[in-house]
């Protein structure tokens, strides 16, 4: 089914206008949808994206020089699409390869250069599509692309026409691809190669402010960041097509929860009365009001809830958000240190004042308010007097695990017992989110920069701006936003758009590898090539050369045996497919068992 605003050319009146009209080519089995000459695989109205196939640029060589070549030209000027900069990567494969991507009528461009020797095998056009993740080893390069592109050209060149590597590498390739781990496929035409890319799309050439009731019922209007037009998105708790007059409808699960809440309210209403407050400690609910918010008891509870903090208090606490108070920056905002009522706090402030950021910050409040765990950073309060909410967290004094691994304070990680405890505490926090929180939560950005250490080096998981509540069925998808951090992102999530708890398991596996090897998730080797820690670590384990990548402080024989067990666990966490990965409960149980085993070893000594 083709979702509105798109429609088929032979279905009169089904599309918004001719720009959204697709054709169905019946020469293929099953028939394939096209816009122009580009095959379209899926359209998401929820994310306003489309996944399409585009031909890969290539140059093949023989003894006399260039044997055949194809340069990619992509022009979306007549269509409502732009090339997603957030979800696509420019990539080249070859051992003597200069790949150039030009745009803005060839006035601007980017590119990358790849080199290797004849020990690296890169096949011809019939062979390259049979290789899983052809850019996972030597002989490839990649770079980001700019925002809002509607036109581009891709060209390839070689320094020596592959004269020294003709047998091992007869062809070069350059292409856009969704995600960092490319899989090339056979094109629709004979002897061609294609890749999947993600396109963003918008509706119209107006803004949300210029037209009222522009989206369907129970839907939000969001202005495009990179081009004219807007997109619509269902409100939280609703599903459907936000672009149609029917709009978004409440799910059966949402309706069930409403009836459940009414039932609880009727049966437990008396529990919020003053005389019952000591018996029922509060786990409160908050509602937004203009410029503020009000809190009340959850059904069956009484007492105090998260504190409403004044803007003036936070400005005074942070010296008006002085740069010297800055603790760090993330994708959603900056974090400042402050002091309120002799309590050290961390204030998270959005960097952008748009509706998306406001909703994302309120979403973070909603997520964190559902978590009560000693290894998760605690939300102390919220300030809603500003255009974008300010979130006030407990201050965690010893910074991030990333800082201690890669900074000048690695000494605290010289103790294997401390490394093991940090890993076990982080695992238990994620296990709680997956298995004990209701509804369950996928963190979605598990990385060492989001693991904080307090004064006693206890781990606390932070930054829930990208997190998702899990609906019935334990899967969220398809989701082509691809949120997360490169190097920690689950390749299966990038390929399928299906977000599950196993995506967090993958990120945690990378964290373990980083903790054990003291290498960043993506790092540069002696040749100058950027490689991924997952590939290097996994290969070392498979080749029985794990000690080559491990960087542990002083450790005895028993401790090194545990280090190897954790290394094997890390590799299991990044297994493909994701069904082969353990759950966070299994991971946490293994690490807890090793922690208890370590204590017993110390007692015996």
TrEMBL record:
Instruction: Please tell me whether the keyword ATP-binding is annotated for this protein.
Output: yes
A GO MF term: ATP binding
Transmembrane segment boundaries: none
What keywords appear on the UniProt entry?
ATP-binding, Disulfide bond, EGF-like domain, Kinase, Nucleotide-binding, Transferase
Q: Where does ATP bind?
A: 349
Top-rank taxon: Eukaryota
Protein kinase domain sequence ranges? 321-594
Gene Ontology CC: plasma membrane
> Know the name of this protein?
Protein kinase domain-containing protein
Tell me the disulfide pairings in this chain. 215-232
- Ranges for the EGF-like domain? 204-249
CDD domains under this entry?
EGF_CA (cd00054)
